[in-house]
Amino acid sequence: MLCALVATAAVMVQCVPSLAELKDHRARADGLWLSPTVEWHASLGIASVAKCDVVHVGAFGRWIAPADLVPKQLRPRLEAIAADDAQLLLAIVAAVFIAHVLRPGWLFLRHFAASAEALRAGRYWSLVLAAFAHDDLMHVGFNFMALSRAAPALQGRLKHDRTTFWCFVLLAAVASSLASVFGRSTTGYTETKGASGIVFAMMAHAAATNPAAPMFVYGMEMPAATALVAMLAIDVLVRSSRGIDYACHAGGALFGLAFYEYYKLY
Q: Which processes are annotated in GO (biological process) (predicted)?
């Protein structure tokens, strides 16, 4: 999974020199660094080298561009995915689910589920990672379909500003995960997973932007503001029989509304 994400991120840039050009090149301090204190580790890190705007990973002057490890026939498709934030978000969700299916184990149980226990242990990153993890095909399927509609719409409302889009996604993940953790006494959940909090944040942002815009709830068309209220009400009504984490959804929705109020000021 990590290799796939690194490769996808690497092809987001356009200029990738060959490995031969980098073979004996020493590190240049013109990029992002992980700064060890031992002098002979000075070239260890991640940097932009050889005067090229591309990320390389390496140590001791031996640098590799991860994009060079991707088969050439796959690069155009990966570049297209990486250039589109909505597609990249869907690709990350799919990659995490596939990795979970292929290699289930302690890594996902420990780091990809948000809970009070995880926070007490200092695993704060689980608030974000949990939003990209799903337990089964139905869970990821519903969220994937919802994101495939909501994410491109959010892109348009944010005028395709990549930084703002990813700030929205990551902060929505944190807000919905925290809401779920603090609401566990009423929901009965000990942990939370899934992108539904992000979906509800996007729905709330859409409803705040244009309350009268058409939105579908279980096949029925209604104004976006009505649809959001209806979805949250359904969550509360069926939470016990369907196992719905309504605190997560409500937290995501509240974040979406708050983000709209903040963003419109600028």
A: signal peptide processing
Q: Give the percent of the chain with pLDDT over 70.
A: 70
Spatial contact of 20 and 65, defined as CB atoms under 8 Å apart: no
> 34 lies in a domain?
yes
Pairwise CA distance, residues 111 & 129, whole Å: 7
Contact in structure between 64 and 56 (CB atoms under 8 Å): yes
For the stretch 234-244, pLDDT in tens is 887 876 556 67
Tell me if 29 sits within 8 A of 47, measured CB to CB: yes
Partnered with residue 214 across adjacent β-strands are 223
CATH number of the domain residue 149 falls in: 1.20.1540.10
Q: Specify the higher pLDDT residue, 3 or 193.
A: 193
The verdict on 41 and 116 lying in the same domain is no
Structure tokens at 105: 């184990």
Q: Are residues 58 and 134 in the same domain?
A: no
pLDDT at 35: 31
Q: Residue 68 falls within a domain, yes or no? A: yes
Give the range of the structural domain holding residue 67, as residue numbers without chain letter.
2-72
Q: Are 114 and 190 in contact (CB under 8 A)?
A: no
pLDDT over threshold 80, residue 8: no
Q: How far apart are CA 27 and CA 31, in angstroms?
A: 10
Query: Residue 57: which region, alpha, beta or left (left: phi > 0; alpha: psi -120 to 50)?
Result: beta
Q: Point out which residues pair with 223 in neighbouring strands.
A: 214
Cβ–Cβ < 8 Å for 85, 166: yes
